[in-house]
Records
---
Amino acid sequence: MPELPPSLLSLDRPGSALSNSTGPIIDFAPDASCLDVEGLSLAYGGKPALRDLTLRVPRQRVTAFIGPSGCGKSTLLRALNRLHDLDETVSRQGSIRLEGQEIHAPEVAVDELRRRVGMVFQAPNPFPMSIYENVAFGLRLQGGMSRRRMNDIVEWALEAAALWGEVKDRLRASAWSLSIGQQQRLVIARTLAVRPEVLLLDEPASALDPISTLKIEELIRSLKSQLTLVLVTHNMQQAARVSDYTAFLHDGELVEYAPTASLFTNPRLARTENYITGRMA
Amino acid sequence: MSLAEVAGFRARLPRGEGPWAWLAAGSVALSLLMLGGLLTLIAVRGLGHFWPASVSLVELDDGQLLAGRAVRELPLATGQGRERLYFTGNRDIDGHVWQWVAVDRIVASEQPRELVVLERVRYGDFIGRLVDVRPAGSHVQGVGGGEVAWAALQARLAAVDALRDERDDLQRNVIQPLVRQLEKDPGDTAARRGLAVANDRIRGLQDAMQAEVVVLQSVDGRRLVLTLAEVLRAWRPNAMSLPEKMGAWVQGVWRFLSEGPRVANTAGGVWPAIFGTVLMVLLMSVLVTPFGVLAAVYLNEVAHQGHLTHWVRIAVRNLAGVPSIVYGVFGLGVFVYGIGGSIDEWFFSDQLPSPTFGTGGLLWASLTLALLTLPVVIVATEEGLARIPDHQREGALALGATRLEMLTRVVLPMAVPAMLTGVILAIARAAGEVAPLMLVGVAKLAPQVPVDGEFPFLHLDRKFMHLGYHVYDTAFHGDDIQAAMPMVYATALLLVLVVLVLNLTAIFLRHYLRARHGALSRH
Amino acid sequence: MIKLFPVSSSTQSPRRHLFDRLATGLIAAGGIGVILAVLAIGAFLAVEVIPALFSGVLDKERITLSLTPLAWGTLKAAFWALVFAIPMALGAAIHSAVYMSSRLRSRIKPTLELMEALPGVVIGFVAGLVLAPWVERHLAGAFALLLVMPLGILLAGGLRWSLSSSMRKRLPLAWAGLWLVPWLAVLGLLALEVSPWLEAWLFGGDLRGWLDTELGIDYASRNALIVGLAMGFAVMPSVYALAEDALSGVPTSLGEGAQAMGATRWQSLWKVVLPAAAPGVFAAVMIGAGRAVGETMIVLMASGNTALMSLSPLEGMRSMAAGIAIEMPEAVPGSDAYRLLILAALLLFLFTFLVNTLAELVRSRLRRRYRRLGDRS
């Protein structure tokens, strides 16, 4: 676990008295924010999914979004690399800035944005190609890369995803021949190969067995020295184990956002406590 | 309670499922029976045609003799006794090739070894005895009858075959190019000389082929003298052993597949029809595949998924159910008269009023069938695209792919089996479709195949022969339907085989596709 | 700890975006173009005919005179085709959806799919040149076959009850579609052997003459019954496939509910499953009707192509599709005859298109209903 930024330690805490207020409580003022979400509202075909959400994601830390299903945490994650663009029924207000630049600005190329903000999905989705080709996929899109350099990057990415040792002798085998856990790490390697600045993980371990889950969690911790990671998870223990900050969302709204340790040990709102203690599904 | 116990329990119930359940089961059995019957009929008759069946020499109670192949036997219309149909050949001597004989009237029937069957250029088969092989114009006894004559005939026929091949080769590779050369430049003396030499050579070959005659005698004693050039094949079915018969059968099948039709399509082979069908279908698939895939990709990946797209999808699906003849009318009105007429006015006005593209032809037929099968390809490809899970698309996008890159690198390769299925189904449908072709370009007999050595090599404006139309035309517009029936059966069998094989391929491909996507959607 | 790998910024971006936009535009344009070309068929037919209709070039009397017999022939052929096809197809669909063992079913369905693919010209040839002359010669035998088949099936069901239970287990209803085949084949041959004696006994040895003198029915060798049988054979597989889909799509909980209350499978089918699947079965029949109306080669080859307007199923007819196939190549473009034929094509197009659209709507509504039912259970 990294140390908490000093700015957080100096915050004064209002003791153990739980507040019943509904407005968001943001126990957090990061100085090095990577993503700034401001006043974001999102609706699917008129049905609101996110309401006036504002939060900052700190650079080179793991931030977890938790909350009951349908709370909008996955929607928020997909908004961060504009994957919701695919759905024509989505309407959006508010802004998201990546390193200070508005991602919805007309001059931003959406594919370039998605390269910078990579994403790993709930179910592993390797392409029906060889292991090598899966990792090289994003590199080939950019073109103009020598064979040697591509080999190097593929090896680096697989190593970074802790998969190299298991697959280095069968890079030409079909990606679908891997186990589910290996497939998910392959997908992470594939995403790392294009050198994103942010990695979004949408319940990356929910389809995996406990040992594979452990490996993924280790991987997440090892990656944060280089990347900003955002993790959506259902699993409170997982959020507590790997994340530095945790945001609790409910019904499309941000309820509480604080360093993980303080949110789990000392939630400020009754709603948060109810959720993390399992009194609210 | 186990399943078997449940069944046993049911069986002990006083009432069963009742008569209707049995009738329902019966309709499955009945359809299988009908399908099996149809296929067996076509297969047996189609393949049996090539079997060198034994020839019987029959003596009737009034002393009349006839030689022929027994074809079938039926009860007499009066209900007493049966009658038998013989194929007796000898159209030029007897004036007919079939004879019904009441079985009671047959005094003796045997199968003498010396009876020969000759396949001839004109008048169909001859059945009778071989008397002599001798030089033309001579009245002196030649090699004589019996085994000696048979051996001589075999040797001479092989020689004549070689001569015939040489003649055809000369015609195709020397004379035709020279004639075209002279059409362009009538003053070319070298070509003129070459042509004269070649024509002399051909005349020499013709004479050599007619240099000897074969003397034949029908079983009732009438004589017939034929030049060797008129005889294609000779065999003695009663003297053949089983392996020999099988060899002859294979040879017959091969000749059917590789030769052109003779005697107004009632004999010979169907090679031009096979060629025409395959070429037309190939052209059609070249046209239908890119357009069908394009439309499917647009509908499924690019178009806004609103009400309009929904209705367009239903409309396209329904066009698959519009009768093929309507497509034929469209092809005739738009392609042949509309576009073809305009092309003629612009580019071939010197040949008007005889139309070049303004009449049915290979190009228009392929285009019409492409339009007819477009819905099949669109629907199959769309199904394939819809089966690809969305997370594959998102995976590509999340790596920074543009929409085009996502389509070409991930989505389309995954949809290839579905596209193939669609194209194969389209080909199967097009291969069996006849009605629209009758309007846009099929021909009863097209001596010129649409591909040859003449520029531009592929003649899109030519009419072509087609297996399905061959079946229709031979069966309905010939003079002697009975004589043509074996050919029709064989052609129908070939068509059915082609269509069934294509459909089976599509079924297996679809099966493979489902299995693969099943594996994919498991996790 | 993993070392950072140096990033090389991509330089190709603008070209890629241009390419992407261009290709998307091309796909859209091409796709719309292809779809318009396919849909142009209806437009072409309408454009050719409607002005002539309104300007009075084609007067009503002429249209009625020339198209009525063809329309009559079309409907007559389609009617007899459906008379043969619907009971067979629905019976087969019910049997394979409810009774058939799943192993047999996975074989039978593709087999019938292959049956659908048989070219019309082959079926037409067999019907017109083999079946028609044979039936003409063996009229009594043919009628005996028609009678023996259903009776033989019932007999098989009845005989099975009198068998010992071990024999009965070897002939289960689930496999009846298969083991009835040899039984029916034997019965059919038997019927053919017996029929001449029956004919001699009942009709004085000449059924055809008897029909003519006693009932005044003229028997044409290529008649509506032959066409109906052949076209029924061609239409049956598609009706079967759609009806089977509709029946086996009914959530199993519905039928099982009825069986739990002691109904036989037939009763639960009749009272519960069939009403639920009725729209799908209806759609299947509609699509079959559309195919029967448009089928060209079978009618062309198996009917006499005489434009008669008789009710008798033993006489021939001429259908619109066959009329178009025969006359269109000779019609001069722009002439009245040509326009009349295009009008016939337009009618065929509209009929099949509407029927299919109706069927498709019914089917999609049914699919939604099944999904809801499936959710609730």
Note: The two ends of chain A are 28 Å apart (CA to CA).
---
Amino acid sequence: MTPILELRGLQKAFGAVTVADSQSWALAPGEALGVLGPNGAGKTSMFNLVTGTLPADGGQILLNGRDIMPWPAARRCRAGIARSFQVPQPFGGMTIFENTFVAATQGARLSGSAAEDLCLDVLNRTSLLPKANVLAGGLTLLERKRLELARAMCAQPSVILLDEIAGGLTEHECKSLIETIMGLRETGVSIVWIEHVVHALLAVVDRLLVIDFGKKIAEGEPEAIMQSPEVREIYLGIEADV
Amino acid sequence: MDWINATIQGTLLGGLYALFAAGLSLIFGIMRLVNIAHGDLIVLSAYLALTVTMAIGVHPFLALVFVVPAMAVLGYALQRTVLNRTMGDDLLPPLLVTFGFSVIIQNALQIGYTADPQKLKAGAIETASLSIGPITVGVLPLLVFIAAIVVIGALQWMFYKTALGRAFRATSDLQDIAQLMGLNRAHVFGLAMGLSLAVTALAGVFLGIRTSFDPAAGGSRLIFGFEAVIIGGLGNIWGTLAGGVILGVAQTLGAKLNPGFQVLAGHIVFLLILAVRPRGLFPRMD
């Protein structure tokens, strides 16, 4: 089966700092992939490269087998890639509904009542419906994180990229967000999820990818990866016994 | 009574200034582009209408059917082919390029139409008036004022109720994020400029009916438009109407004091407002 998203030898450096070092991995349709790595490992840069915010130096990014490297960000979104931001970036002068409506009309190319219905459905699934007409500038952190998710969903992506969406939430808030993301999985969308809140990640993903210095250092079953010396070193700060 | 009359005439004149300003306000709000050629595009619209009325002998109002879409297409094309290439964090390149447009348009008009003042002939409506008690109001200025309210009301509705308006506001808020939501910036900017010049076309035809114009008439129209936008406050389209009215009233009252004082009075009121409230009277944007 053709992977929904595939990176082949993706390369990007800022001067002497390499943020993507010949990175290759693939995401199967409907799969949820978790991404781990220390701060500054190049995780968010990888999202920026995939969405087209950053131009890559080399390699290939394939969406459904097609090389999307020459495409600008807007076209990549329309073709099926949507993302959320670690620091929520709502359109502050617009209501929650309008925020999602932009994604539905521009990203999913829907119009009129089809776009409205999608927005209302997504807002319902992300528990934002009661606040649909509230300006996005004045929301709580959980609401802003939910709006990030809702807006990305309204672009009707085939791949959704989540950047530390559970970060900064209380335990209770985190739990309710996980439920929403589980619901999202059931719709068949593929997920790539960068997260430091490891238990949240493990509750959802099928596979883990570990990145450091822009390089893929491990990939595989979540249990096996969590036991691996590389991950223990990164997260526990202890040298692996050799 | 003379003063009340002058205030009313000034208010109606403000409608024309608001039409000058609406297009400027629109593109600055959406893409932070300051269009130095705006006044010349108003004059270009008047000349286009002149050509249409002379070529096929129609009333200037009927010429709008041609001039408005023509200017809208020109706006979209200018944005897609030239202005989009100048857009970025630096405000200077679009400023310089539109200044270049201004020079080109003025000189092209001079070659095409000579420097002689021209006027659009609208017939009886030019001198028709309505008497309300002791006050007499010209039908044409009243029509222009109503058109300004309708245009600004329509723009406001478009901004808040339509998909395009929401795309404009999203771009205005966070351009980069909007693109990640699938919004094609180049196209949306093109539509914004197209819409701006459609309003400009209307302003140009009204200008041409109200007063005579020549190829160099754009500069002062640009300034009046700017003043109306700044007085009203950036990003507030109804504020732009208020700004136009304040400027119009200041000018007619100034002219009442001394006929040579008209334009200066407008500038002085503008400066006073700028000194007291640098962000304008009703700002919505930082």
Note: The interface with chain B takes residues 51-53, 72-75, 77-78, 82-83, 85, 89, 91-94, 98-99, 101-103, 105-109, 111, 115, 151, 155 of chain A (CB under 8 Å).
